[in-house]
Amino acid sequence: MTAPIIELRNINKSFGPIDVLHDINIKVHAGEVLCLLGDNGAGKSTLIKILSGVHKPSSGSILMDDAAVAFSTPREATDRGIATVHQFGGTFPLMSIGRSFFVGVEPTKGWGPFRIFDRKKANEIAVKAVRDFGITRIDDGDRLVGGLSGGERQSLAIARAVHFGARVLILDEPTAALGVKQATHVLRIVNEAKKRGLAVIFITHQVMHAMAVGDHFAVLIRGSVAADFRKGEKSREEITDLMAGGETIADLEKEIENYMASHDGHPPPVTPG
To answer: Domain check: are 67 and 112 in the same one?
Structure first.
């Protein structure tokens, strides 16, 4: 197998005396979706911020194409091809689709001090980029982003990242606030990004969505990778149990059963609080 596009080796992160991440080791290859699973507080957000240049790791290494890299700012991560799309797409509701697509890098026309935003060119490129991902309902670049569905906003943000050369696409809970139909659109976009050879890191706590697109899975619990496995190696129930901390209802029932067997049928006492 070729070298991973991005790899984390023994990443640790502390904020003062508080240890948040512990010896994180993760690899993501081109054309692969890594699903990063975990409940609230598992460390997913901190890990995203390290990958996207918001935080520096306290120790450990980040490698891209087998070469060590270090990001001091999000811009440096973006320049290396790492794009992060947050839950609501990071779009601007009161901007047009074309303007939002090119915010910060607007195409212009004219000469010298008379250069102005090339609205026609921006609209054409933005609409084509989104439609190439299968979102055919978008056909007018002058339409306001605020009029798009949540799934369409996600699609617009992903299409923008790909257009500007992203190699690693980090999706932070992209389906969390979406209905079934909109979530299906986003999952289709994720698969399309994978087909185009991007390395996708899909952060979610929704196991069904992860299983629909994932090739590789890592479960975070209290800042550590509790499990690392490939598609088909674990069932939905096993993954859900891992996210809950590894203790299943069946485990609890067995413990109670064993206790009662050794204490003349009396259930274990309930501890106040």
So the answer is: no
